[in-house]
Design a protein that fits this description.
The protein has 464 residues and is of the alpha+beta class. 38% of the residues lie in helices and 17% in strands. The strands form 5 sheets. Strands 3, 4, 7, 8, 9, 10 and 11 form a 7-stranded mixed beta sheet that branches. A 5-stranded antiparallel beta sheet has the order 15-14-13-12-16.
Length: 464
Amino acid sequence: MDGQFLFTVHPGKAILGEPIELVDAGLREREDLQEWVRKHPQVLGPNIRIVTFEFSEWRSREGSELDRLDLLGIDSDGRLVVAELKRGTAPSTVEMQAIKYAAFASRFTEETLSETHAKYLSNEKSAPVSLDEARSALENHIDGEFDPDLLRQPRIVLMAARFPPQVTATAVWLTEMGLDISLVQFGAYRAEHDIVLTVSQLWPPQDIEDFTVSPRQASIRAADARSHRRRETTAVDRLIADGVLDDGAPLHLDCTSLPTSVRDGVEHWLLQDEKRGRVTWQNDSSGPLVWEIDEQGWTPTGLAREMIERATDEPPPVVRGPRLWITDDGQTLSRLAGFGARGARDWSILHEALKALKQGDWTTYSDLAAVVGSAPVPVGRHVATCTDCVAAYRVLTAAGRIASQFAWADPNRKDDPQSVLEAEGVHFTTDGVASPVQRVNATELSHRIESGTLAAATSGSRDD
């Protein structure tokens, strides 16, 4: 990479690394470079999940297209990422090739994208992965449902050792025209004992969107905002429907999750007056956040944007409110909402996890929450009222105690759950704490489900 140097450093000396081409090191484009990126998708941008690679199943009225896309990912906002990788210097027409792939990818729907991801996961795990499982994995990554508007606007990432002037000039112009395109450059060096690869984003420079504004970019940001508003409504509605938070529960703005361009300004502004940071929850979908400054109801995004604007005197960026507000124990509203497949709660994995507990086992609400991708509060509420939750008495608090509000699903049952557990072999201390040795944590629960030991695990369980 021009203008960049790499040194191996020892006390008192530094050894300059030798720039090399990947081809000269015997490294290949697909087997090496593509695999590195596939295993470390963060080099293409933050929060990217690989959907598939070497995809060529394009269809048209004339039949199949033979073009093969190197990598297809999706970011946490739900926008597809089309990535083209070149081992050496990028061809002068690489951006046109990527635009064609982006046009093809823009025709993906929720269904076809899930089908493609299911094939990819099945190949990765060497075991069948269902369409619903693949869809759930994608929706968990984007923290909600797909937005068709965003699916039609893929991002483009080009990665190469060098880019000719024709490509960089075209990338700059396409950015100005509203297309989201990035150039990622790598450099290979022969260090003292190893070959080292450096990766950095050549274009656009950080925060370039503050300087390149066009009508097309405005429409893209508007689509982002619509998606965020819809997800926020979904999160708030779920929290209220489940009664996750009590009226008056304190909330705090997580400044560490704000865009870097406004973070310091907001933190300084909040410290100037402690009332500015005092926010509580109310179970009112029209304005669930009550701000002490004006005692009015706000949406999570609306209040975050208001705070940013007051703190910086600048138009606030697009933010996703449910991810910015946290409870006293550090849970975001988005996390507490516990998004599931197709935008609806799917507790089937939780039911399987409970069936995987055998006599002498116990687990916690937090462990179950980790397995299903939710939070302890909604998990606890579900277990307390679910008639399909086998052996719910085997779920204890994080301290290993029977929950103070535990109740049998069968109102006629009056026996002591601790006595039932002790009869099954769980050991308790004199003050009612279960033995930590017998706890089945989230990792073990997931392993039991995935390894197919469900039948063996449930063979000794009692039907409660």
